[in-house]
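#lab-general

N.A. 3:47 PM
ok so I finally got the sequence cleaned up, no stray characters, all 246 residues accounted for. can someone with queue access submit it? mine expired

B.Y. 3:52 PM
send it over

N.A. 3:53 PM
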Amino acid sequence: MAETTTIESFGFIIKKETLSLFASEYKFSELILEELDPLAGFYDHFHIPLKEEEKKPRSIFALTKEISFEQMDDFIRMNATIKKDFKAHFNAVMGRLDLQNALVTCIRIYMDDYAALPPLIEEYKLRGIHFLPARSVKEYSSLINIRKYMVIKQIHPSIYKDSQLKDTYYFTVKEYVTWPIFESITSSIRINSEHKVYDAAQAGIYNQDGIVEMVRIYDPKATVEHLLYLKEKYELEIARSLNQMD
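B.Y. 4:20 PM
back already:
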């Protein structure tokens, strides 16, 4: 039996989500947003009902004042320190999103129980993190760039499965394109494909040569055959888009 290749690397996810103020009985003094329609390409476009375990936010975003990507090493050390004594399980990474025509840094947080979010926010504040103050924010669409540690297992040449996230897959592509082009390509491929129910995002991992460009697919019914089909289509459409720009 061939040995399965596992890749552990720092990487990124770029996606567009609908955000709104985090719905909570606790009155936060910090500005905290949540994904209103997580994995919108899967659930929202095709009116697929959420399962009970999927009804809580997939992620929330605590917006910060001063922390920057240049301080990422300090933030990773901070998370490790907090996790030693913090009773509730959580996952937190740095990211950036759009807020009222400005690009702001955020902490993307996922928790099994969001009742533990207030003390977690306090832990960050005690360690010098300054958050934007709470204010009214209407529902809006934002491009989100998340930097995170990724563990993926190869299930076929150039096809990978996320070891930490259920029903999440990746395939490599040769070139990077901007989000508007990627979004247009995704819409075109979906329209012309029989299998339309999946969510797509841009992704990548870092290696010694630079960045391995990828497409992230969320699809509970994904097959290797369909992922290979999508890879072929994305490669074709990306190359076509880049040729049009020459």
